[in-house]
Amino acid sequence: MYKVLLVDDEPAILEAEKRAISQRIRDFEVIAEAYSVDRAIEIFEEIHPEVVLTDMKMPRKSGIELIKYIGQQEEKPAVCIAVSSYSDFHYVHDAFLYGGFDYLLKPIEPAKIEELFDRIQKLLASMKKEQSRVYLSSEKPSGRELVSMIEHYVKSHLSEDNSIIRICSRFMISQPYLSNIFKKYEGCTYNEYIINLKITEAKKLLECHDCLIGEVAEALGFTDQFYFSKVFKNAVGCTPREYRKQFLV
């Protein structure tokens, strides 16, 4: 049974999340709730949950700080889900930069939670298998070699899950190490690299008139066309639809 930690300063939201998980999700159990980031960190250190759902906008400290903290824990990886209202969606972008896996919009939709946890379960199962692997070579690659290996893998599997937690599991490295080698050799974080790569590819696809925006999002590994449009506009300054109009004859 996978352990789940819920974090939100609104009791009604916590209750809705807990009810949806208990009624719809198998193999996951909500074992703790927290009303603040500080308390969430204490609980995280105590129980080491595999999944954390955290509100983005809370008093004193935001969910971004919690996701950033969890991402720095080498021995206790966890799948972090950002929970946000539409008006606070800019927080979600920052959550992905620090290793967030996905997001939920308020009000919480039980069906969305069900689909999300299905993907989380597949990810955790895959991670468990990959963590049992060992490198065939006795010599581990250098930082530069590892960056090249990761970049090659990502470009070859762009439509798949390339989240920080997935890549770290696949290449048997910690999240801080992944961040350090990308900053050293690419001058950016891993998530900044992956977003820049996807935006570059998105532009190429959008310039093809027969490719639907939803198909572009899917080809780049976005499970939500709405989020893809938000990320694209944040990076480019216009929506995918507005960008495409520039190339219409």
Overview of this structure, please?
This protein has 249 residues and is of the alpha/beta class. It contains twelve helices and five strands. The chain has helices at residues 11-24, 37-47, 63-71, 90-97, 110-131, 143-156, 164-170, 175-186, 190-206, 213-219, 225-236, 240-245, and strands at residues 2-7, 28-34, 51-55, 79-84, 102-105. A five-stranded parallel β-sheet has the order 2-1-3-4-5, sandwiched between helices. Strand 1 (2-7), helix 1 and strand 2 (28-34) form a beta-alpha-beta unit. The radius of gyration is 18 Å and the shape is globular.
Tally of individual helices: 12
Low-confidence region ranges: none
Q: Give the radius of gyration.
A: 18 Å
Distance between the termini: 56 Å
User: How is the largest sheet built, in terms of strand order?
Assistant: 2-1-3-4-5
Residue share in β-strands = 5-15%
Overall strand count: 5
Indicate the mean pLDDT. Answer: 87
